[in-house]
Write a structure and sequence with these properties.
Helix content is 35%, strand content 27%. It has 12 helices and 13 strands. Strand 3 (51-63) and strand 4 form a beta hairpin.
Length: 347
């Protein structure tokens, strides 16, 4: 299977895009929102002969070590490729050779909103796992999919007569970050958990403004007469939705407003015929366990996703690879490993 890679501009790359399993984070609208002078979007076609069989997009990132390529999700095959294992395997091998040829020092293919089940990466890659929690609004039924705890939250919130509203104005961002700070303090107080709301790589306040300006994102919230009690920022693309940020006020926590907001958004997406409402993942902390439980209680299905990364692929950085291999066998929360990562990331 001889696969060739062809670099494209974003307009030509989008040709027949509906025939590929492209994820939310591979669209140009997202990549242009997170780009800057050191992060440039790329768009690749994987071809056999004159036919495009798969696509990949992401960022070429320049730092103190050189340039590496980062994709928020893996290579996406054409919809007609039901038996895509061999295609993806060989495409990843070709991607590695492409990186070597262009002197990119590393390849990272993450798995955010990745809707392809694939974990058979070539030996040049090391896989990693992520769980996300996805609701199918078209088939979601509140009577059966909400847990008893969620139903209690909804009952409590109905007494407040909150109004459900939405906005695409960047002016709403100040309120989002005010409530995110409330959520951050609450997690620290209850779980001693250091919480970074902008958890997605390279996501910034400027990125969020760009997403709203380009109508790629919508903010939903529940509001009393005085204040917004719960709020979430969703990416909206075709029939897929992804929650980037969610926050609640202290009053909202007491009133069950977070559950009520999710319920309202599910109903809206059900009316629109949306089939994928991705609530994001969770983290391996006490608050992360609670977040996972909440998402399952609201009716989400847990989905196991796989991404992959290479070691360093050019000299002199390849000399560090034995150390990287050792670190993979040590728990991620090890203090030595955290220090080593900081040293590698520092200039």
């Amino acid at each position: 299977m001889k696969i060739e890679i062809e670099e494209k501009n974003h307009n030509s790359w989008l040709k027949d895009i509906d025939k590929y399993n492209i994820t939310t984070f591979q669209y140009p609208s997202w990549l242009h929102a997170v780009k800057n002078s050191n992060k440039e979007p790329f768009f690749l076609d994987f071809k056999i002969g004159d036919r495009v069989k798969a696509k990949l997009s992401g960022l070429k990132i320049k730092d103190h070590l050189g340039i590496y390529i980062y994709s928020y999700a893996g290579i996406m095959p054409h919809n007609s490729n039901n038996a895509y294992e061999a295609l993806l395997y060989n495409s990843y091998k070709k991607l590695y050779k492409y990186a070597v040829k262009n002197r990119y020092y590393r390849v990272v293919a993450a798995c955010y909103d990745y809707n392809i089940k694939f974990n058979n990466f070539p030996k040049e890659y090391y896989n990693f796992k992520r769980n996300e929690y996805i609701i199918d609004p078209k088939n979601h039924e509140a009577s059966t999919d909400f847990s008893s705890q969620i139903k209690k939250h909804l009952k409590k919130c109905r007494k407040k007569s909150l109004t459900f509203e939405s906005s695409t104005s960047p002016n709403i961002l100040a309120t989002i970050f005010t409530l995110l700070n409330t959520t951050k303090k609450r997690r620290m107080r209850r779980h001693n958990d250091i919480y970074n709301p902008l958890y997605l790589p390279f996501l910034t306040k400027t990125s969020l403004k760009s997403l709203l300006d380009n109508r790629f994102g919508t903010v939903y919230f529940l509001k009393s007469k005085e204040n917004i009690e719960a709020i979430e920022f969703n990416i909206e693309l075709n029939d897929r939705r992804y929650t980037l940020l969610k926050a609640t006020s202290e009053e909202g926590y007491r009133d069950g407003a977070s559950s009520a907001l999710t319920s309202k958004v599910i109903s809206k997406y059900k009316e629109q015929g949306i089939y994928s409402y991705n609530l994001g993942g969770s983290v391996k902390t006490d608050s992360g366990d609670g977040l996972k439980k909440y998402k399952l209680n609201i009716g989400a299905n847990e989905k196991e996703l796989f991404g992959a990364t290479t070691n360093f692929i050019i000299y002199p950085y390849k000399l560090i690879n034995p150390v990287l291999n050792i670190t993979r066998a040590i728990p991620k929360n090890n203090k030595v490993i955290k220090t080593l990562k900081k040293l590698l990331q520092s200039s």
